[in-house]
Amino acid sequence: MKIKTVEKNNRKKQYEIVTEKGDNYIFPYSQQQPSPSQGNKIVKLFVDPELGCEGFTYFLEDGGEGSILMDYILHYNREPAYMRDMLLYELSVEAQDQIKKSKLSKREIIRRLNTSPAQFYRLVDQTNYTKSVDQMLNLLQALDCEVEFIVHDNSA
């Protein structure tokens, strides 16, 4: 996701990011290293073309510098589509590991899923985000795996 603009808000101690799609996000100074402070302010801030415009770079008065990628911003803001993609990635990598451990042949797994070989290979591809969580759960079930989701209360 490309960044259109990034601005600093020293009063709120955060960056305000606008993407090319028009989505707005915030990212607090406290989540970065080196972090700006009262005596070490940001002197330069820009969307970085060397990061493919998917991040920004800042320079501090003391010469410190850093870059923040859009992935960090999406993770911090718990952006639902990003979190879904990360879940699919983790499920895909786990499915790959389970396939290696399994005594089942790929042909048997495909038969259990009642699908085509092409669809099977799309499911195990961790870079494919067009699949659904349901499909990944079906794949893991075909591999005789039990999947549990744990919900943590972060407010405490």
Catalogue the unreliable spans. none
What does the largest sheet look like? 3 strands, antiparallel
What share of the residues does DSSP label as strand, in percent? Answer: 15-25%
Number of domains: 2
Number of strands: 6
Describe this structure in words.
- The model has no long low-confidence stretch (mean pLDDT 93).
- The protein folds into 2 domains: 3-76; 80-142.
- The chain has helices spanning 70-76, 80-101, 106-113, 117-124, 133-142, and strands at 3-9, 14-19, 24-28, 42-47, 55-60, 65-69.
- It starts with a strand and ends in a 14-residue tail after the last helix.
- The protein has 5 helices and 6 strands.
- It is α+β, with helices and mostly antiparallel strands.
- The strands form 2 sheets. The chain has a 3-stranded antiparallel sheet with strand order 1-2-3, covered by helices on one side.
List keywords for this structure.
156 residues; alpha+beta; three-stranded antiparallel beta sheet; 35% helix; elongated
SSE order and pairing:
Elements: E1 3-9, E2 14-19, E3 24-28, E4 42-47, E5 55-60, E6 65-69, H1 70-76, H2 80-101, H3 106-113, H4 117-124, H5 133-142
Antiparallel strand pairs: 1-2, 2-3, 4-5, 5-6
Helix pairs in contact: 2-5
